[in-house]
Design brief:
The chain has 24 helices and 18 strands. The protein has five domains: 93 residues, no CATH class; 108 residues, OB fold (Dihydrolipoamide Acetyltransferase, E2P) (Beta Barrel); 277 residues, no CATH class; 35 residues, no CATH class; 158 residues, no CATH class. It starts with a helix and ends with a strand. The chain has 703 residues and is α+β, with helices and mostly antiparallel strands. The strands form four sheets. A six-stranded mixed sheet has the order 11-10-9-16-17-18.
């Protein structure tokens, strides 16, 4: 027996030692595990936590240096997890900036650094160098984002100093437990307040000569492209060339999303790869056409250097957002491999890009673009690598190879990104595969090359023909988007998964892509578990908006909402997370609520409930307490009637949105503000809500 036990104990270490040549792609995986663990903490860690993580990293480094070679992968994995904890914590404290902790209404002065559009299609300005009336400089945010409502007389440009009267407040947290946390995202963007203005924006001063030079160049290029290419096609062309998508109409944006073509508009890996690939091929071919030059220089390395320079300029021109930075890092690693005579497209190069990006921006791990980009790239490299020397080498006719490559790449990328897109956006574009087959070749062979030629010819005034060709390609893409989006069943809604679903899918997919031999099949196990968890995910019975202005009750005909207007973001988020394509007005017409708008009555698990809001909310509190088992009121109930189950603004101010379920006859409350983190205000100590809530209601986590 002892002779069998010892080999079984040492077999995993031996297997790891034998697989060392393929283990580097796991470095970013364990780094991501540490980052993910840090973001999942319920409380902000202190200095002792980071000291312990640093000691673990140091200890692992010593063990790798002195320990047996067979154990190196284990220490590398542990060290990477600890390093991920350190990187995430360091990044969160390095970007710390003031966040507005009160509602502000008054004059706002600042410099325009970005112009885009909100989900409601309103023009939106991001300002820095802010001045707020009667607010101490130490409390003024670094950046604010303001949506403009009503007529505007000023044509905003980056670098302008403007003044306007606006409503501002700190970024809101999630509207339900486990929901999208805009407050966390805003923290890492140093966005300390958001708001809106209904009055015209006034120009305080024009940009200084060297102020926001790149942003102004982007704005002028965007205007020039849209002047040469009218309509949505011009706005699409400007978007893919400069990152300015503010000119694209809302119907066009919705069509691109419904047809799974929105990724073509984002300046990400595909766009930068198309542009860099075109420049690389153009320069290399040009050098090859001059024999004396081709015999004396390495055309491939010259092309790589120039393509890298073009990619860097494209990064600056696009505004250096996270998606473009990620794409630039991946392109830089691949072109660097060309310069070093290494294989450009490999899982090691993808892993190196991920390590650099996670080290610089650990928060990008939670971004849908990061997950989908690396999922697609990994699947493409692993898929074509598995077929290299087999099906793609001599087994199919040469003339079929381009079509086969296009279909296979679309299929691999689609399958790899589908679960991440469905989890983040709660929808699947059923005909996205067809739409991508019809548009991706046009994007790579027409739109991006024509855009690059237009940029080269613009200084001598000959950009018009190239822009005309680019416009034709953009019109084709938009036509396909509208066509596919109009097909019946173009979009299938998907409910939000639980917290472990995406990590399991990512882990299983990476195992399938990286591991070799018969053990590769083990990657199917976490994929199966993830799909089972996703299929069995349950949605809350009752949802309450953070301002108590909206309540959503799950019923036999999906979720019914208490109001057709108001709390639009919460309503949209709830319905999308339910996997429901209905709008707020349609959901408000479903059975579940009755009574006047200021006093909606409902039933939850056989218990009566009342939702009070409006000017007369407090006046109806006594009657509601006599009639209802649960009262939700959009006001602070003070004094509180005895023996009344009240959820008021006093509670919601600390809990954020609430999810309510039934657990053994009791109402179980789960607060959205369940984390006490650097980007989130403190919540009450555990158990304190029992002072305010009756025994029939308890918070999740309380014993």
């Amino acid at each position: 027996m002892r002779g069998l036990v010892l080999p079984m104990l040492f077999w995993p270490l031996q297997a790891l030692a034998e697989a060392r040549g393929i283990l580097f792609p796991w470095v970013p995986v364990f780094l991501a595990c540490g980052i993910g663990l840090w973001f999942g903490l319920s409380h902000e860690p202190g200095a002792g936590f980071y000291l312990a993580a640093a000691l673990v990293v140091l200890a692992c480094a010593v063990l790798i240096w002195l320990g047996p070679e067979a154990g190196h992968p284990v220490w590398v994995a542990i060290g990477c997890v600890a390093a991920g904890l350190l990187l995430a914590g360091a990044r969160a404290h390095l970007v710390a900036a003031p966040v507005l902790d009160f509602r502000y209404y008054g004059p706002v002065q600042g410099r325009i650094i970005a112009i885009d559009r909100s989900q409601s299609d309103a023009l939106r300005l991001t300002l820095d160098r802010l001045v707020l009336q009667d607010v101490r400089p130490t409390r003024v945010p670094v950046k604010v984002r303001i949506s403009l409502h009503g007529p505007q007389h000023l044509h905003p440009e980056p670098g302008q100093i403007v003044q306007l009267t606006a409503h501002l407040s700190g970024p809101e947290g999630p509207v339900e437990p486990g929901g999208f946390d805009f407050r966390r995202m805003a923290w890492f963007l140093q966005l300390g307040a958001v708001g809106y203005a209904r009055t015209p924006v006034m120009l305080w001063s024009e940009p200084a000569p060297r102020e926001q030079l790149v942003n102004r160049m982007r704005s002028r290029l965007s205007a020039g492209v849209q002047a040469a290419i009218p309509g949505d096609a011009g706005a699409f062309a400007a978007g893919v060339m400069t990152g300015d998508r503010s000119g694209l109409s809302l119907p066009a944006v919705e069509a691109l999303r419904a047809s799974s073509l929105a990724h073509l508009l984002a300046i990400s890996g595909m766009n930068m790869a198309f542009l860099s690939g075109f420049v690389f091929a153009f320069i290399r071919t040009g050098v090859a056409l001059v024999p004396p030059l081709a015999l004396r220089v390495n055309a491939k390395k010259i092309a790589a250097v120039i393509a890298l320079g073009v990619a860097f300029f494209y990064l600056l021109l696009s505004g250096s957002n996270v998606a473009t930075e990620r794409a630039f890092l991946m392109i830089s690693v691949m072109l660097g491999a060309v310069l070093l005579d290494r294989r450009a497209l490999s899982l090691r190069s993808v892993a190196l890009s991920a390590v650099v990006l996670l080290a610089l921006r650990p928060e990008s791990l939670l971004d849908a673009g990061f997950q989908m980009s690396f999922a697609a790239t990994t699947a493409l490299i692993a898929g074509f690598g598995a077929l290299e020397g087999g099906m793609l080498h001599g087994r199919i006719p040469r003339w079929v190879l381009p079509l086969f490559t296009l279909v296979l790449s679309s299929a691999l990328a689609g399958v790899a990104t589908a679960p991440f897109g469905a989890a983040h956006f709660n929808r699947i574009a059923d005909f996205g595969f067809v739409a991508n087959l019809l548009t991706v070749p046009v994007m790579g062979a027409v739109v991006m090359p024509a855009g690059a030629l237009a940029a080269l010819l613009a200084p001598i005034g000959l950009a018009a023909p190239a822009l005309w060709v680019m416009g034709l390609g953009c019109e084709w893409i938009l036509a396909v988007a509208h066509l596919v989006a109009g097909w019946e069943g173009a979009v299938t809604a998907v409910p939000a998964p639980g917290p472990w679903v995406l990590p399991l899918i990512a882990g299983g997919g990476i195992w399938l892509a990286v591991w070799r031999g018969w053990l590769r099949g083990l990657g199917l196990l976490p994929l199966a578990v993830a799909l089972a968890l996703w299929a069995g995910a349950e949605r809350p019975l009752l949802l309450i908006a953070p301002d108590a202005g909206l309540v959503g009750l799950m019923g036999p005909e999906w979720r019914a909402l208490s109001a057709a207007r108001g709390a639009g973001f919460a309503a949209r988020s709830w319905l999308e997370n339910d996997g429901d394509l209905a709008g707020q007005a349609a959901a408000a017409n479903r059975p579940g609520f009755s009574g006047p708008p200021g006093g909606r009555v409902f039933q939850i698990g056989g218990l009566a409930g009342v939702h009070l809001k409006g000017k007369g909310a407090l006046d109806g509190l006594d009657q509601a307490c006599r009639d209802g088992a649960l009262v939700i009121i959009a006001a602070e109930a003070a004094p509180r009637p005895e023996d009344c189950h009240i959820l008021d603004l006093g509670i919601l101010a600390r809990s954020g949105g609430l999810a309510v379920d039934l657990d053994q006859g009791q109402l179980l409350l789960r607060p959205a503000n369940s984390q006490r983190r650097i980007w989130a205000p403190d919540r009450p100590r555990k158990g304190q809500p029992h002072v305010l809530l009756p025994a029939a209601i308890r918070l999740a986590g309380d014993q």
